[in-house]
Write a structure and sequence with these properties.
The protein is α/β, with parallel strands linked by helices. The chain has two domains: 178 residues, 3-Layer(aba) Sandwich (Rossmann fold); 134 residues, Glycogen Phosphorylase B (Rossmann fold, 3-Layer(aba) Sandwich). Helix 1 packs across helix 14, helix 2 crosses helix 3 and helix 10 packs across helix 13. The longest helix has 15 residues.
Length: 362
């Protein structure tokens, strides 16, 4: 193990610019991650800003109108980047803004980092039936131009490495333990046990796999999205609350007996940590995300299984106190420090690293 390196004082604090096609007012895991990350970086003494679609003319994304795509952003985005004069540039997504930021950096010979937040090849396949291989080939080219691609879980890093991605960097997630707590619980006034889903109501989330399960008690779906009207019409016995946030969302988690996560394509699953922080055990398929979040505590705080019904029933025996304790292992401050340790200055050297400790990671 190499000794820690002393940081050059000139990069403390740093001006960090994040470019993302996913940003407020969108509601999803990428936006929550980046918004919380920005807050943590600022609390650590850095200047951090996010450039998102809210600063540009946009059009609705085909098949998902809640997501807005920026129109011809290159010239305006270049001016914004140069006006901000960042020490480090991070490109969070592969949409129009991500492509424009990548083009700007390559034209000027500037280094940047990227992140793999979303399995777009699988999302496209779910909506169109197209094969995933061409999309992954394009993603390899997109991310290969950067100095490092941040990935949320060990399982996903192994998978992407096998697909030919390089310069992979571990970057986990956190949970707001002050907001997501087991203290206040939604009563629901429904037959018990209550099996809960929270998240976007969209085809790539595989929600039907949950709704079609034969389970005792009741099913509740919290969230909005393009599939919501159709599912409400089809599943009359399911309680659909629409989107919730803040205390109402925490109460929903805490008032459930099991949180069911049917997705096969998520890269992490922040909702898993939110549920655990509220003391509610998790049931999920044995796939990337749940496998990593529950590592070391499966059985006590949740169950992953190829049979989602079997997982949901087994998770009823979870230990709610152990769920909360497991969630406490995931810190947004640690997430921000890891993010910093992977950033690179625009010139490429020396590493832009964690400022809180004054040393680079070994």
């Amino acid at each position: 193990m190499l000794p820690a390196r002393i940081l050059p004082a000139r990069i403390l604090p740093a001006r960090i610019l994040i470019v993302s096609d996913a940003w407020m007012p969108q509601v999803n895991g990428v936006v929550r991650t980046l918004a919380t990350l920005r807050g943590e970086l600022r609390a650590m003494g850095h200047e951090a800003e996010v450039i998102g679609p809210d600063r540009f003319r946009t059009v609705p994304c085909p098949t998902y109108p809640d997501i807005r795509l920026s129109l011809f952003p290159r010239r305006s985005l270049a001016a914004m980047i140069e006006g901000y004069a960042p020490d480090a540039l991070h490109i969070a997504t592969e949409g129009p803004l991500g492509l424009a930021a990548r083009a700007w950096a390559r034209r000027r010979g500037c280094a940047f980092t990227t992140a793999f937040h979303t399995r777009f090849p699988e999302y496209i396949a779910a909506r169109t039936g197209l094969p995933t291989a061409p999309a992954y080939a394009w993603l390899r080219r997109f991310h290969g131009a950067g100095k490092g691609m941040m990935v949320a879980s060990g399982t996903l890093r192994e998978e992407l490495a096998a697909r030919g991605f390089r310069h992979l960097r571990a970057w986990s997630r956190g949970v707001d333990l002050a907001s997501f707590r087991p203290d206040e619980r939604e009563e629901w006034n429904l037959p018990r046990p209550v099996f809960l889903y929270v998240g976007r109501v969209a085809v790539e989330k595989n929600i039907r796999a949950f709704l079609d399960l034969e389970l005792p008690g009741s099913k509740v779906v919290v969230g909005g999205g393009p599939q919501l009207p159709a599912l409400q019409r089809e599943y009359r016995s399911v309680t659909f609350t629409g989107p919730r946030s803040g205390v109402a969302l925490a109460r929903a988690y805490a008032g459930a007996d099991v949180f069911v996560f049917p997705s096969l394509t998520d890269t992490f699953g922040l909702v898993l940590l939110e549920s655990l922080a509220c003391g509610t055990p998790v049931a999920a398929y044995d796939v990337t995300g749940p496998r990593d979040v529950l590592a070391g505590a499966a059985g006590r705080v949740g169950v992953v299984d190829a049979d989602l019904r079997r997982a949901a029933l087994a998770a009823l025996a979870g230990d709610r106190a152990a769920c909360r304790a497991h969630a406490q292992r995931f810190s947004w401050r640690a997430c921000a420090e890891a993010f910093l340790s992977h950033l690179v200055p625009l010139g490429g050297h020396p590493p832009l690293v964690r400022a809180a400790s004054g040393t680079a990671p070994p």
